[in-house]
Write a structure and sequence with these properties.
heterodimer; A: mainly alpha; about 65% helix; B: about 120 residues; alpha+beta; 3-stranded antiparallel β-sheet
Chain lengths: ~210, ~120
Amino acid sequence: MAFFARHAYVVRRYLQLQGLELLPLAALFWVAFARGLGWVRLPGDGQPNNGARWFLGGLAVVFAATLWSRAWYRKRYSTAGQLATASATRPILLVTAFLILAFWIQQAARLPFSLPILLLGTALAVVGIGDYPLRRHYLAAAAVLIGFAFLGPLGISQPVRSILFDAAMALALTIVGAGDHLLIVTTLHDTSTLDDTRNLQEVRADV
Amino acid sequence: MSDVIKEVVNIDRVMHEPARLAILLTLEAVAYADFKFLLAATGLTTSNLSLHLTKLESHGLITIEKTFVRKTGRTVARLSDRGKTALREYRRLIDEPKRSAKKLTLFRRLVSPDPEIA
């Protein structure tokens, strides 16, 4: 029965489980982390806001890579329409609204811990627990973010925290992206070797 | 023959076939799916899937639409209202013997607390 539950879950959430889409963004955060540690130097370093400019430029590459990853899934597993009840739009909007509120509270109350990151970690934990065991990797990602949120009270300085922020985001995105991707590739069958141009009529004619 | 057994014996054989049931369960989880997605989800061969889709369509359990995307034919299947009702009924029939067995076990336990008999 576990297989049927897994199969139904993956089919139902196929669009949301396309984890490869998150890996380019994770790579961008890994590069930002490496730059923060001084392992990578970018042209123009030393000028103010150079890191932010490179990060925004990197987002354009991330967007292009996301389109490529969508095409990758389409080639292997094709497409299916998501049921309105399975849509993630409402939860994402809700988390975004709470994030904005959390940023505002963080500024106003000067909390020692990071409320927005704590909220993000909690949202991941809710998914991890709600869809346990299939999305238990979300619990690991949540632990990374919740751990990061409390680095301030542990006495970690702001410059170190800003470098660790990139690492925490990169690690969480890598865990979520790779875990979701594995869920798809270990459940659905690869059809990329099949001829996509054959349609039902042609197949019927062969039978 | 009890009513439960009679119902199970008369189960809809169009649905009670592993490949067709896999197709119907896949279509139940999505709004629609194209031919290739059904191949990926069920692991059937193209000819097998085609045969089962034709059978399900002829019984009105699914609807099949032909569209064209960039001059390439695309076959899209979705569960019909009749298919949704049939799946609900199928689930009820499959679960009924299980529920009856549970009731019987509980009754036996109440009558005879001996675990050997229960």
